[in-house]
Q: What sequence folds into this?
C-alpha cells in the first residue's frame, strides 16, 4: 500500500526517457536523410548518434532510425523541408525551418505559436531575406541604415 510513490516515480522517469529517445531518434532520422546513412561521412549524423549513445538509446533503435532516414530499410520516411517567415515583436524578423511529414498538421501549429507570441507571419515576398548560412538569415536592407542612408553620416 505504501509503494504507490515508487510506481509514480518510475512512470515519470519512463515518460521523460521516452520523450528524450523520441527527440534523439527524430534528430538521427533527419541527419541520415540530409547527409546519408554513414556516420563516418556525415558529421551531423555522427554527433546525433553520439548524443543518443550518451542518453543510453539502444543500438537497435539507432540503426532503425538511420535506416528509416536514409531509406534503406523497409520503413521509408518522406520528410519535407518547410520554411516559415514572420516578425516577432518589435519587428524582429524570424525564420522557422522545419522538417515534417505532414504539412496539414504543422502549419496550424506554427500559426498558433506565432499568434501566442504576438508575432506575425510574413506574407509572400513582403521582406526580401538573404541567407547567411546554416545559422540563420538577415533581412536584406541593401546596406542602408534605418533612415535610408548608407552609413551613419547619411551619405549616398
A:
Amino acid at each position: 500500500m505504501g509503494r504507490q510513490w515508487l510506481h509514480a516515480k518510475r512512470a515519470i522517469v519512463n515518460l521523460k526517457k521516452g520523450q528524450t529517445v523520441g527527440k534523439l531518434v527524430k534528430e538521427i532520422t533527419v541527419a541520415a536523410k540530409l547527409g546519408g546513412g554513414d556516420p563516418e561521412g556525415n558529421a551531423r549524423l555522427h554527433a546525433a548518434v553520439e548524443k543518443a549513445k550518451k542518453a543510453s538509446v539502444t543500438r537497435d533503435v539507432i540503426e532503425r532510425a538511420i535506416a528509416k532516414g536514409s531509406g534503406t530499410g523497409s520503413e521509408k520516411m518522406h520528410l519535407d523541408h518547410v520554411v516559415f517567415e514572420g516578425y516577432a515583436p518589435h519587428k524582429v524578423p524570424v525564420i522557422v525551418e522545419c522538417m515534417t511529414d505532414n504539412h496539414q498538421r504543422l502549419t496550424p501549429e506554427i500559426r498558433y505559436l506565432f499568434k501566442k507570441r504576438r508575432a506575425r507571419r510574413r506574407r509572400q515576398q513582403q521582406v526580401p531575406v538573404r541567407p547567411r548560412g546554416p545559422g540563420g538569415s538577415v533581412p536584406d536592407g541593401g546596406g542602408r541604415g534605418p533612415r535610408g542612408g548608407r552609413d551613419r553620416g547619411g551619405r549616398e
The radius of gyration is 22 Å. Residues 80-139 form one domain. Residues 65 and 102 are 18 Å apart (CA to CA). The longest strand covers residues 80-88.
